[in-house]
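RETRY 2/3 - previous attempt timed out on the joint model. Re-submitting the same 1538-residue input unchanged.
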Amino acid sequence: MKDYIKIDEWRIIEEGFDPHVHKISESIFSLGNGRMGQRANFEEAYSGETLQGNYVAGVYYPDKTRVGWWKNGYPEYFAKVLNAANWVGIDIQLDGEQLDLAKCEVSDFRRELNMKEGYLKRNFKAKTSSGKEVEVETTRFCSMADDETGAIKYKITSVNFSGIIAITPSIDGDVRNQDSNYDEKFWDEVSKATWADGGYVQMRTKKTGFDVATGMKFNITVDRQPVSNIPKPATKDKYVAATVNVQVQGGQSITIFKYAANLSSQNHPADQLADLTKATLERVAAKGFDTMLAEQAAAWAKKWEHNDIIIEGDISAQQAIRFNIFQLNQTYTGEDDRLNIGPKGFTGEKYGGSTYWDTEAYCVPFYLSTAPQQVTRNLLLYRYKQLGKAIENAKLLGFDNGAALYPMVTMDGTECHNEWEITFEEIHRNGAIAFAIYNYVRYTGDEAYLGDYGLEVLLGIARFWSQRITWSGDRQQYVMLGVTGPNEYENNVNNNWYTSTIAVWCMQYALEVANKMQAADKAKYDALMAKIGFDTDREVARFKDIIAKMYYPYDEQQQIFLQQDGYLDKEQILVKDLPATQRPINQKWSWDRILRSCFIKQADVLQGIYFFEDRYDIDTIRRNFDFYEPRTVHESSLSPCVHAILAAKLGDEKRAYEFYLRTSRLDLDDYNNDTEDGCHITSMAGTWMSVVEGFGGMRVRDGKLSFQPFLPGKWASFSFHIGFRGITIKVTVSKSGVTVKNLSGTDIALLIYGKEQSVKAGVEEVFGH
Amino acid sequence: MKDYIKIDEWRIIEEGFDPHVHKISESIFSLGNGRMGQRANFEEAYSGETLQGNYVAGVYYPDKTRVGWWKNGYPEYFAKVLNAANWVGIDIQLDGEQLDLAKCEVSDFRRELNMKEGYLKRNFKAKTSSGKEVEVETTRFCSMADDETGAIKYKITSVNFSGIIAITPSIDGDVRNQDSNYDEKFWDEVSKATWADGGYVQMRTKKTGFDVATGMKFNITVDRQPVSNIPKPATKDKYVAATVNVQVQGGQSITIFKYAANLSSQNHPADQLADLTKATLERVAAKGFDTMLAEQAAAWAKKWEHNDIIIEGDISAQQAIRFNIFQLNQTYTGEDDRLNIGPKGFTGEKYGGSTYWDTEAYCVPFYLSTAPQQVTRNLLLYRYKQLGKAIENAKLLGFDNGAALYPMVTMDGTECHNEWEITFEEIHRNGAIAFAIYNYVRYTGDEAYLGDYGLEVLLGIARFWSQRITWSGDRQQYVMLGVTGPNEYENNVNNNWYTSTIAVWCMQYALEVANKMQAADKAKYDALMAKIGFDTDREVARFKDIIAKMYYPYDEQQQIFLQQDGYLDKEQILVKDLPATQRPINQKWSWDRILRSCFIKQADVLQGIYFFEDRYDIDTIRRNFDFYEPRTVHESSLSPCVHAILAAKLGDEKRAYEFYLRTSRLDLDDYNNDTEDGCHITSMAGTWMSVVEGFGGMRVRDGKLSFQPFLPGKWASFSFHIGFRGITIKVTVSKSGVTVKNLSGTDIALLIYGKEQSVKAGVEEVFGH
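RETRY 2/3 succeeded.
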């Protein structure tokens, strides 16, 4: 745990230069616009510890899988997001001496991420070893308004020396992934060029053949006057640069405006990338830095209007929740249904930038409420388009007849993970993907989605479950053997309650949707059944038989759902009785000891209760919560939010707040000592859920929003913006009650503490507790 | 499956050169003498497919572990046997044209492994692309009589050309392991020298610092006359050679005698290796090739006298069983308690040449009966000396108080394996190690071993089990959770019957031995208890409580021991109903499908019944055999022998023979298409067991040998030599009955078909069936 980020409502601030936290800051101060992103690497050269990272959404590389022991069914390749060309570089030489903060005396260092307007600013004074002093201020952003571009304003002032400052803006494509399995480089150069005031490099990924052209255009002023010195171009493999020498006197400032463009063959013809990049650069340079920055602020203002959460009385919490919302918006804008949400977004390489069940289970609720409906729909379509590969994946494992097993980790629909206990067994992901369809339709009312896309996915998934579930002659019930639930501290268990529950629900929901569609549009229904070769009689009978005769482990004595067969055979020790020296167990214990213990990484049963809470009475929820929570170590960043929401539901406001605290500043305070690898983007959505579904008690009931809010004791009030079926409301929870402001032109009916209420268009209503 | 090896009683013969089977032959025709060994690589250069392999027993390298996903508790390093300097090389140039069978027209190729006398012979005619024809005959061996040496006689005859034959014998230490995880080379050169008629290279392993000096001394004759030409030395990194040019006419023969020595710092001071190597070479060269070969034949004759199995009426079976005995004797001679038996012996790199539970479960019975008692005792001492590391290993996994978990795979006592389901869970190996102590004492009567060494190991193991077994509050019984049994097609199961059974047996046996020792030698007992800090009251009480209240899964309906909790929840399909296209399932099915199926790699429950057969009545054995055998795919080479022995016990002679057949020619006929990696040395001991314990029905009962033989229908008779407590007998089973010949000077009492019999010293007795 670190504590160096300054508290501010709208800004993330670091003061003073500490190389030991630099990699953490590179993650925290990351920038992105959904299309591209980058870690907060310095513009000027830096020879200290750094993780260089520039990423282009959707551009990935299938790295050859590395395992110790191969198991049949492992994927040959592991698709990972690529470290792409670095466009931020601006090398500075002071009379031939390189400006490098690792080698200078640094003072007045300050880094600021302005979340309101979406830019990164950095200031410092540096004194080189020969005593030259300069002052630097640099501002940069990835444009939200023009998402193939970014810009940097880099101002350097001589404090005490007169001489030549050599300025070298560059595009450096000679990068590698830190996580490259065989130290390979993943890019080949296609072409490059330098111009009088810039240049570009076009590169192509090996194997996948994505082309990306990254270009720059720059101009330089001294004391606001353009510099006419002719830049001296330089090129190397995958690298273009240009050096401008400027004579300065003490007190004089040079400002470099560097415009960058990143164009990919996903969006443009590969053979036009070079020209288009140049044209894009000219367009944005003509606009100028200040205009681009103003557009950036406007784009972010529009985002915040729809998804800001305002917390009064707790600036630290205010900063944290905005940081989470900011990063989620930087990561995924929902405009492209080929993209998804990597667990680290654009903030690092870890987890390969790939898609996990995190998207459906944690991010979908966030985007449903804070972004246009189309955004979540695109997340659903992403999976729809990968249905064929999910069917292939299931075939590889021995299933047939259109059974679909979505991959645990993927970029393009093929499986990327290779721990057998996860790849082959953590199949509950299929359930979350089905649940997201249900959740989307419940929230948006977009029933048409089901007929057009949803049912086909649901049936593929239901077919998988119907084959994966087998008949136990011994029990005379259906069982599901050899699975790993969301609690990854158990592997290869039989009859995991969560997985069995969501599997059977998938079959029920698929049948329900199929019946509805058959009734609504028989021709369309028949066409789909023909397309997928669905044997209605036989397959429906099988689904129904499983639904009727499924076995779910249950403990009669304690009246709780049992996480899996045999869970009560374990020594039942509570987390509170674990010495602090033993935690986190995933660092302190052998894997073997973790597996044999009763300790839970994230509680499966509670995850299931969260998804299907309407099925269970409050006593059932309480009994299960009281049993599982004390055994849960929350060593997944996805764990606490579900506990916060259930604690809130059970009226335990104190603990709901405690669970919320565990993730709210996870990255800002580097709780798990791993922020340097990147930020926990997907768990940020969980933090949002803790506030809105936990403290706000928001649910959808019969097509209406319902709220059951409480105010955490430390806070004066909190408000959140929610979009729902075309209406935006702002809900404020304060000591005096619940205020709902209808920001749209349509009246809205909703439930507040279980009572039907309505708020007219443009009106604000206050409801007592 | 291949079928190219010619049938012969005493020889393994390959006729005709087929490069496609060359790597298989390199394995099959391997040579070894317990101290060193080598694959049957060609002496002359060969540019075709080959796996070069020379190995020095006990010289290993801790290769950095490669895994896809690290789990806490994995070993940092994986000790593997090293590919060592190649001393067989004799490069031949014919007027500058290299003799290379990959580039010649080859005829009359013949390879012969003479198992009776322990040498490898090869003949061929080769015609180079320019038309030069030569005939070669080469004989080589690793000396059993002088186990740091080997010798080669390489005779080359010009058929049709006159010119210069350049002969270059070499020592080439610039080798690498094919299985090197990071393509590293593992040796550094220490020193080297060339002499007029030879040279040596001394190398040191990285990290482990073993020094090995490998030297050669050669002489050359033409038509039996010594050649006086002065050799031209050549050196490269880790390489010495000398070239002799000899002018020949068509029909003339050159013979190269090459003597080799391999001396290791395990056995000599590192700084004297060079001198000692030279002295050794001079000693053996003075003896000469023919004398060495005669010594070799004599050493092997002595081995065969003690361990030959003679099968009449089935030459193929005769060849196969001798091949197994031959390879086991080449691999391990039992003279050095630092050595053990790698699953591939000296025939390949696979499995890292490390020690597995194979040694205790399969090889110990073989060596007990076929070698002096000291040999097995040394195998036991190997583990005794690694007890400290086994305790460290258990600590790493969270155990304490002297609990010992022996590694799954090891060279020096540290764990080398890194699949969590095996490394951490396949803990039954601990049981086999305890059982081997019991088996040794039962066989030899050497009770003193227990007091001196055995009990300390037994208590370390018992302590491990007493911590690994936990109390189930739910069951009110002790349970063992999260294990993998010998059936590796199940992972992380609860209450594996075999593991629980052997674990509790270990505690019982440890207590029994402790009591006996306390009664026999209280002072020694007390000293041991003090040394290991054994809390007699508390620990014994814990052992006894577990013994009394252990849970073993059992199916009441079928009255069988259940392999593990939940086994009957699986779909019960029999192997006979599996289409041939689906087998072997370990190649045809995903790991996931294998795990979820009921199919068994090798039957755990039957392994337990084999170990503890006296506990079970014949009906119990039959019920379990009849249940498990039809579900067993025997995809471990260690599986069929146990089935053969139990089938024999159940009187099912036909099936006993069928099981025997599955392993008897496993490598000779390359059943599993993997002999090119090396031979299945440890399963060869299982084949021996099938014959002696299966067909011979040999057991030890109350300190006496007991036989219950039958004669496989295809055979006219079979005999085997057995050593037992200083007495050697030859047992012959033929249609006319069981003949026991007492080859020693002491009378022996034994049981034949359950009847007490005795055979006087030097006498042969015949007993009817």
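Chain B touches chain A through 48 residues (CB under 8 Å). Closing ticket.
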